[in-house]
Amino acid sequence: MTLFNFRPELRGSGSFSGQSVPRQLVLELLNDAVWAPNDGLREPWRFIYADNDSSGRLSGLQEPAPAYLIVVMKEESDPYKRDEDFAAVCCLMQNFELLACERKLGVRRTMNNWIYDRKQMNAFGVQDKERIAAVLEIGFWDGDPGATPSPQMAEVKFDLL
Amino acid sequence: MSLAELIRGRRTIRSFNQTPVARELVAELLQQAAGLYPSAEDAVWRCIYAGTPESRKRLADYMMEHMAGSRLGKWMPGKMIELFKKRFADIPGHVVVIAGTGPDRQASDRNYAAVCSILQNFQLLGWERQLGMLWDTEPMMQSEGFYERLGIRENERFVGVLHLGYYNKAPRGRSRTPAEKKWTVYAGSQSLK
Questions:
Q1: Exposed/middle/buried for B50, CB within 10 Å: 0-12, 13-18, 19+?
Q2: Is the minimum CB–CB distance between A49 and chain B shorter than 8 Å?
Q3: How high is the pLDDT of residue B191?
Q4: Does A138 score more than 90 pLDDT?
Q5: Nearest Cα residue in chain B from A156
Q6: Which CATH architecture has domain B21-168?
Q7: Which chain A positions have a beta carbon within 8 Å of B23's beta carbon?
Q8: B172 and chain A: CB distance < 8 Å anywhere?
Q9: Domain A23-139, architecture per CATH
Q10: Cα–Cα distance between B157 and B147 in angstroms, integer?
Q11: Is B113 part of the contact surface with chain A (CB cutoff 8 Å)?
C-alpha cells in the first residue's frame, strides 16, 4: 500500500459506536505519530487522555465519544516558535488521524470555544505556559464505513511565481 | 512500506541534488494531500511555486532582500548573501504556502491547522516518491517586504516555504520521546466544586 493510493473512509464527522477504545492502540498510534517534523526537536506536545471521565466535565464541552485525546502544546513566548510548534502539533495530529483511519478507528478533530478558556483548560491540568491545540474525539464509527462519498474537492490553487 | 514506516522514515532534507522535479508532480501531490484531509474543501489556502531557474532566483532575491537590510544582514558580507541566494536558487523547487485568516482566532487557528495538516500529507506523499522537503519558517525571512513581494493580502498569512527536491542521502532520524512519557489520564475531578 502507498499513501498515494490510500483511499480511507475519511470522515471528520459521524457518530461512534459504543465500542470502547483500547488505550494500548491509542498509545501505539501516538508512538508512530510523534515522528512528526518539529523544529529543533522541541516535541512541543503532550497528551491528556480521557476515556473514563467520572466528573462528566467533558461531556458538556464535547460531543459524546468513547475516548478523548486532549492535545496540549507548550506556548513559547517567541511568536515564530509558537507558530512552528502549532504546525508541528498539527503534523502529529494528521499522522495520528491517518494511522487511526488505517486501523478503522475514527477521529473527529475539534477546536471548540472552550479550549481558549483558561479556566476550563486548567480544570484538565493544562498549565499556564500551555494551550490546547485540539481535542480529538476517538471511537469506532457507527454504521457502514465506506458508504460516505468523498466530497467534491476544489482544485488546489497553484500559481507560478 | 506501511504507513507507520513512512511516517517514521520521513526526514527533513536540507541538501538536494540537481535532478529536476516535475511541476505537474508537485501540483498533483498537493492535490492528493488535500484529499487526505477530511474537510479540505473548507480550507482556504493557496500555493505559489518557483520551479524554474528564473523564478527560483527571483524568490531567493525576495527572501534575502529584507535580510540584507537587517542588522544581521548589514554585518553579513555581500559575498555571503550571494552565496545564500545561490544555495536557494539551486534548490529544484519551492512551494510558498499561504493560508487564509478568519474573523477570529478560533477560525484562523482552524484554517491554519487544516493547511498544516495538508502539508504534512504533502511531505509524506513526497517522501514516498523520494522527494525530500524542508518546511522553512525562518523568522528573518518573514518580513512585510517579503510578504508584499509575494502578494500576501490582508486576510492571509504566510505558512512557510517548502524547499523540495530529490536527495542523495537522508540524515539519520533522531529518536522521539515515547508517548507514554507525555501522557496523563484524566479521570475527572474528584473534588466537590
A1: buried
A2: yes
A3: 44
A4: yes
A5: B31
A6: 3-Layer(aba) Sandwich (3.40)
A7: 160
A8: no
A9: 3-Layer(aba) Sandwich (3.40)
A10: 9
A11: yes
